[in-house]
Amino acid sequence: MVDYRREGNVAILTVNNPPVNAISTRVKDGIYECISRAKNDTKVSVIVIHGHGKHFIAGADIHGFSGQRESSKVVATLPEVIAFMEASNKPIVAAIHGTALGGGLEIAMGCHYRIATKSARVGQPEVLIGILPGAGGTQRLPRLCGLGPALDLISTGRHIKAPQALKLGIIDKIVSDDILKEGIAFAKAVIDKPLNGRRISTLPVKDAENAEQLISAANASVRKRQRGMMAPIWNIKAVAESIKLPFDEAMEKEAEYFTVLVTSSQARALQYAFFSERLAPKWEVPGVASYNTVKPMNIKTAAVIGAGTMGTGIAMALLNARIPVTLVEQNKQFLEKGVKMIQDLYAGSVRLGKLTADQAKYLLSNLKTSLSYDDLSTVDCVIEAVYENMALKKEIFAKLDNACKPSAVLCSNTSSLDIDEIASATKRPDKVIGTHFFVPAYYMRLLENVRGKLTSPETIATVQSLGVRIGKIPVVVGNCDSFVGNRMLGTYTSEAQFLLEEGALPHEVDSVIKDFGIPIGAFEVSDLSGLDIGWRIRKERYEKLEKSGKKHDPNARFINGERFSPLGDTLCEKGRFGRKTGMGWYRYEKPGAKEPFIDAEITTLLEDYSKKHNITRRKISPQEIFERCFYPLINEGFKVLEDGIATRPEDIDVIWINGYGWPKYTGGPMYYANQIGLDKIYDTMCYYYEQHPTSSHWRPSALLRDLAKQQLPISQWGKQVASRL
Ligand SMILES: CCCCCCCC/C=C\C=C\CC(=O)SCCNC(=O)CCNC(=O)[C@H](O)C(C)(C)COP(=O)(O)OP(=O)(O)OC[C@H]1O[C@@H](n2cnc3c(N)ncnc32)[C@H](O)[C@@H]1OP(=O)(O)O
């Protein structure tokens, strides 16, 4: 795990624990033993520590925080090992490449010097997995780079690149990519330099005089940006101790706060989410194929059909990954509007310093435009992103099938439509797949890849690998109405509207949702995306119903015996489309304004509605609102597993965290359900089903019932699901 060798008077410690040199107990023990050996070796004058492979050290092994910890051969804890390194009379140089994160940066700060390659990144991302830097990071970083930057890095968990780390004083020098050679050369040059000023724990905290202001600004930022998370607060509290207490006493506080966090349910949930996100690309369709049995096709060029918000966002996601894109529209005006949208967004990135003008120019140089499918004969992959209309999508896919080479993969960015029906318009259904992006597509990390009945494993592998390449978290799901995310969402939005019928007001429902940690309420989000979108889809459904001989009554509260709320349609008929018209479930100062106000007109509309339908309005408790919004959603997650639409609970959680703003610190709806207790969820579902028998989303899932009895850990649910399919 840690190799020791000597080159002349330089001891070289190589940490070797693939894939990221995480600090396991054996790595920690290995570092301690090698440092002891170097200290005792009279031929050694200086020590270099570096990492084998792609990273220096990416932090403590996250498995160790909740799982079984290996027993240690040496008694010293990581903070003690680092103190031992810092106390060494022989200089120690950290030679950093790849990343030095978490415990990795803490080890580097226990060294007397830090050098790094230009592309190296450093950071204290512990907060993102619900803990804090427990090996002196909260105390050494403010001494090294100042209180303000340390508070920022530790409370947000963001990584910074070597040039910024150099500016902040976290590293001493940027060197060439031959990191070991550079480390040895640097070490030789510092052999005789005094170490006194190099032991970070002995230095004063920089910016201490501004502590009060910096700490209150950090807390204010956490309240705004990381609402509901306990780790950022404790991280700030730990850093603040560096101002109040001598180093050793502050270290005791750090250990105390670390224990609070590491045993918290938020930390466990965030660590579960960390591994779930890394599991998602490793798709598996039980009995069919999996990521390690199939090779993806290499996508060198792509096309996007439709230059609206979605299409341009997808084009940018591809361009950002250096994939040349042909953007296709039906007329010049739409095409020009789309290109302008892309140009403006890149110009914005340049203004914000996220891109240089040259980078933006290069990305745009990979964008071609066309009004004809004839220009798509050589592309490897096409992503259709026109509005949700089956007839239109089928027409496009038939044309693409004729225009594109036989090996090209044809993707539809549908959020709800039947992939098999879309594929039926082609002679290559094996190459057709759904790629459901989320708005804005260049930013949102989720990519829901929907396999049809005939989609080939190679096509699944290709879009999964493309997803990773463009920086997304790709999740494979099966084909059903609205797939995983929107199918579960449907239960939540329906129930939110039923609550309005029975006595709640939009802001009351939204505040329960936001208190739980979802950043935006159900009605706020409906106003933001526009009520007319759902209305258009529903009108298509009503037309279909009418064609099948069933008359649709606009006031009907039931469709095919299933409870339904016409409230959304009523609002649309009044021109209340949401923010864009200045009124929806809320009122806005003017069309396009962002701040929602409670609207007395809506309150009256709801009261009249309830009266008309003989519903006695009542005060609905926050607990009931919570259960009625979230329990059917969770139950639908179990039904999705039961139907084989998702194969693992982790995938559902990744979808909800990354596509719908579910608070990561609860792990996602499936993990959260397990925390609440599946038996409790099941019993509550049964209770409400009795009260609302005309809402099938209250029918408890059989899988939920069985898992509630079995009490299996969540990691075993996937296997249980596979065995039932
Ligand atoms: C009495 C009281 C005493 C108190 C004692 C306190 C003692 C505590 C002391 C110290 C505590 C330190 C806390 C930490 O250090 S926590 C860890 C901090 N580090 C991180 O959070 C980094 C997480 N990793 C990443 O950000 C990325 O993985 C990155 C390193 C940037 C690489 O990214 P990428 O190239 O995209 O690769 P993947 O993310 O897919 O990762 C590749 C595989 O590596 C696994 N991995 C990554 N990091 C870790 C880790 N820290 N621990 C375990 N495993 C890790 C990841 O799961 C992938 O695995 P697989 O291929 O199987 O999917």
TrEMBL record:
<comment type="similarity">
    <text>In the N-terminal section; belongs to the enoyl-CoA hydratase/isomerase family.</text>
</comment>
<keyword id="KW-0560">Oxidoreductase</keyword>
<dbReference type="Pfam" id="PF02737">
    <property type="entry name" value="3HCDH_N"/>
</dbReference>
<comment type="similarity">
    <text>In the C-terminal section; belongs to the 3-hydroxyacyl-CoA dehydrogenase family.</text>
</comment>
<dbReference type="GO" id="GO:0005777">
    <property type="term" value="C:peroxisome"/>
</dbReference>
<dbReference type="InterPro" id="IPR036291">
    <property type="entry name" value="NAD(P)-bd_dom_sf"/>
</dbReference>
<keyword id="KW-0276">Fatty acid metabolism</keyword>
<keyword id="KW-0576">Peroxisome</keyword>
<keyword id="KW-0511">Multifunctional enzyme</keyword>
<keyword id="KW-0443">Lipid metabolism</keyword>
<dbReference type="Pfam" id="PF00378">
    <property type="entry name" value="ECH_1"/>
</dbReference>
<dbReference type="InterPro" id="IPR018376">
    <property type="entry name" value="Enoyl-CoA_hyd/isom_CS"/>
</dbReference>
<dbReference type="GO" id="GO:0004300">
    <property type="term" value="F:enoyl-CoA hydratase activity"/>
</dbReference>
<comment type="subunit">
    <text>Monomer.</text>
</comment>
<keyword id="KW-0456">Lyase</keyword>
<dbReference type="InterPro" id="IPR001753">
    <property type="entry name" value="Enoyl-CoA_hydra/iso"/>
</dbReference>
<dbReference type="GO" id="GO:0003857">
    <property type="term" value="F:(3S)-3-hydroxyacyl-CoA dehydrogenase (NAD+) activity"/>
</dbReference>
<dbReference type="InterPro" id="IPR006108">
    <property type="entry name" value="3HC_DH_C"/>
</dbReference>
<dbReference type="GO" id="GO:0004165">
    <property type="term" value="F:delta(3)-delta(2)-enoyl-CoA isomerase activity"/>
</dbReference>
<dbReference type="InterPro" id="IPR008927">
    <property type="entry name" value="6-PGluconate_DH-like_C_sf"/>
</dbReference>
<dbReference type="InterPro" id="IPR006176">
    <property type="entry name" value="3-OHacyl-CoA_DH_NAD-bd"/>
</dbReference>
<comment type="pathway">
    <text>Lipid metabolism; fatty acid beta-oxidation.</text>
</comment>
<keyword id="KW-0413">Isomerase</keyword>
<dbReference type="Pfam" id="PF00725">
    <property type="entry name" value="3HCDH"/>
</dbReference>
<dbReference type="GO" id="GO:0070403">
    <property type="term" value="F:NAD+ binding"/>
</dbReference>
<protein>
    <recommendedName>
        <fullName>Peroxisomal bifunctional enzyme</fullName>
        <ecNumber>1.1.1.35</ecNumber>
        <ecNumber>4.2.1.17</ecNumber>
        <ecNumber>5.3.3.8</ecNumber>
    </recommendedName>
</protein>
<dbReference type="InterPro" id="IPR029045">
    <property type="entry name" value="ClpP/crotonase-like_dom_sf"/>
</dbReference>
<keyword id="KW-0520">NAD</keyword>
<dbReference type="GO" id="GO:0006635">
    <property type="term" value="P:fatty acid beta-oxidation"/>
</dbReference>
